[in-house]
TrEMBL record:
Protein name: ROK family protein
Record family assignment: Belongs to the ROK (NagC/XylR) family.
Keyword Flavoprotein: no
Keyword S-adenosyl-L-methionine: no
UniProt cross-references to PROSITE patterns, sorted A to Z: ROK
Keywords for this protein: Carbohydrate metabolism
Origin superkingdom: Bacteria
Length: 407
């Protein structure tokens, strides 16, 4: 519900009705106009009008279906996904990925660029716009249409103003309106979000939490972060950015974290933390058939843990326990329907998951844990699928749809 009860704006009602119809077609198509009318409780005349407009811009199409009772063929409607493309950007610590994905989530192209050193955010913005310019020139075709840009960053984002508030490795003097500047330059609606929160949204649209009312996604990569979905929406909270589980302390005598505190979960469970720990073990003389000073990245460690390498198993189990502790607090706090672990570490399989589960059972309310599945993410294109979810969100909430209908 909206906070201020304004008099219903006619355009807003139109936008919401179009969104309801498109969402039904997208999720349940092939679907007939009569079914849409029944499910949406919109008058058949309204459904006819909305579908006519959506057909005119090509976002939906009619298909003939043989009715089960025989007789004449009925016309149903499905969403058109192949001819509409989205441009997705992930701004990481050292790289930028720019990708092209169609509305069926098929990745059509992806380029990755190293980020040079920048002195000012305007330089970074200029660099990004140049790369995007080339990318769009090379990826536009007459048969398809780019409809929007999605951007994810590893920093804090204000969803209300569509602006970047902070970045982990660059000090922003003021909020960065990158999305607005891209939208103006390329005349495309542009949406920006935090990378982990957007990944939780993608998981909710296309992944293992698809039908869940609420869920928790814990992402372990360069850092550790979480995305909380409540009532089918990513929970940001009044101040945005809820879900910084990576900065819960698990070791009071541990290492200094980039956030300034000591012994955060991130300092023991991030990929880099795990790799550094293994490096120290190898430097101290640990010998392994599967790991060496030259080859001990997270993937090698996960593989070794599955090959009975004792140090790899112990390390993954230790990390699993720390993840389990923090997840137990989260479970007691909001008792999610499902917990998802995302990241390279999930390749350690049962070694990791049984350690997490054991700690969860020891520290969270038994009633809560028993009914909470703990699963690995199965999403592909993890670096850019979150940005796609932002575009998808704008399609199904009507804002992007409205723009396409009025262009
Ligand atoms: Zn921290």
């Amino acid at each position: 519900m909206r906070e201020n009860h304004q008099i219903a704006n006619v355009d807003l009602v139109k936008q919401m009705n179009s969104a309801v119809v498109y969402k039904l077609i997208d999720q349940q198509g092939p679907i007939s106009r009569i079914q849409i009318s029944e499910l949406s409780q919109l008058a058949p005349a309204s459904v006819t009008k909305i579908t006519r407009n959506l057909l005119a811009i090509g976002l939906i199409k009619e298909v003939e279906q043989q009715q089960s009772t025989g007789g004449r063929r009925a016309i149903s409607i499905i969403a058109e996904r192949k001819t509409f493309h989205t441009v997705l950007i992930h701004l990481g610590h050292q790289h930028i990925s720019i990708a092209l994905m169609d509305l069926s989530t098929e990745l059509l192209n992806k380029e990755r660029f190293d980020l040079p050193k920048f002195n000012a955010i305007s330089e970074l913005e200029h660099f990004l716009q140049q790369k995007l310019d080339f990318f769009l020139q090379n990826n536009r075709s007459n048969d398809t249409k780019v409809i929007a840009v999605g951007i994810t960053v590893a920093g804090f984002v204000d969803a209300k103003t569509n602006s970047i508030q902070s970045l982990p490795h660059f000090t922003l003097q003021e909020p960065w309106f990158l999305a607005d500047s891209i939208a103006t330059r390329f005349n495309l609606m542009t949406f920006v979000g935090n990378d982990v929160r957007s990944l939780a949204l993608a998981e909710h649209y296309f992944g293992v939490t698809k039908d869940c009312y609420d869920s928790l996604l814990l992402r372990i990569h360069r850092g550790v972060g979480a995305g909380i979905v409540i009532n089918h929406e990513v929970f940001g909270g009044y101040k945005n950015s809820a879900g910084e589980l990576g900065h819960i302390q698990v070791d009071p005598l541990g290492k200094r974290c980039m956030c300034g505190n000591v012994g955060c979960l991130e300092t023991v469970a991030s990929n880099v933390a795990i790799e550094n720990k293994m490096q120290r073990l190898l430097e101290d003389g640990y010998t392994s058939k599967w790991l060496s000073l030259e080859s001990h990245d997270i993937e090698a460690i996960c593989k070794a843990s599955q090959e009975q390498d004792s140090a790899a198993i112990e390390l993954i189990e230790y990390v699993g326990e720390q993840l389990g502790r923090v997840l137990a607090m989260s479970v007691n706090m909001f008792n999610p329907e499902k917990i998802v672990i995302s990241g390279e570490i999930t390749r350690a399989g049962t070694v990791l998951f049984s350690a997490i589960r054991k700690t969860l059972e020891a520290h969270a309310l038994p009633r809560f844990v028993e009914s909470t599945p703990l699963v690995a993410s199965e999403l592909k294109n993890e670096d850019v699928i979150g940005a796609f979810a932002l575009v998808k969100q704008a399609l199904v909430d009507g804002s992007l749809l409205q723009r396409l209908l009025t262009e």
